[in-house]
Amino acid sequence: MLAKRIIPCLDIKDGQTVKGTNFVNLRQAGDPVALGRAYSEQGADELVFLDITASHEGRKTFTHMVSKVAAQLSIPFTVGGGIHELADVERLLSAGADKISINSAALRHPSLIDEIASHFGSQVCVVAIDARLDAAGWTCYLNGGRISTGKNLFDWAREAYERGAGEILFTSMDHDGVKNGFACEALARLSESVGIPVIASGGAGSMEHFRDAFTFGHADAALAASVFHFGEIGIGALKQYLQNENINVRL
Question: Of 13, 117, 177, 242, which residue is 20 to 30 A from 29 by alpha carbon distance?
């Protein structure tokens, strides 16, 4: 069985790492270059860098910042935000990214998934999905959670998988920043509906929450931000805890 992955996430706004609750009330969390280097040294399995207002503000991800962070890493690096075409992917891969994450652009132009997978390989293409549970079920949102698409989470994840996505990064907007645990029921259903790794995001508040994402949610990786940024959970200690819970992780 493949080792489960622990992935810190750097949400970037105006060149600084930020973190909010339910996608709003953002507060600063530190310098992305220093945080990236620290997480690489602490044993994180990967790092995700999301320019969280790029799609909303209609601009490109900060390529210069991506290069600066990539230079500090010895682990795989995923970058997202403001990616709309193959040229954006090429630019970020050249800047040091190993994978790119697309969200709003994929929902608006699903064929972008096919294009990235065919040009660069499925392993490069992570499809991020922000969704919340409403009267119609789990619904996908655009532009950092600002616009409802009406699309069903599981239908869209299945389509992304069939188009060539290499991974699904699922963030529960209801759980984001609340620290009450991941959306394990939805995660488990997602994992059953696609044949690619699913990354859990939104809700980490304790080591037990990570364990539950892997055991009950069947996630392949768990992503978190504030619990790492503000020193509430150490990556080394978390991995040791998970190993003690009989979860396969790289120490």
Answer: 242
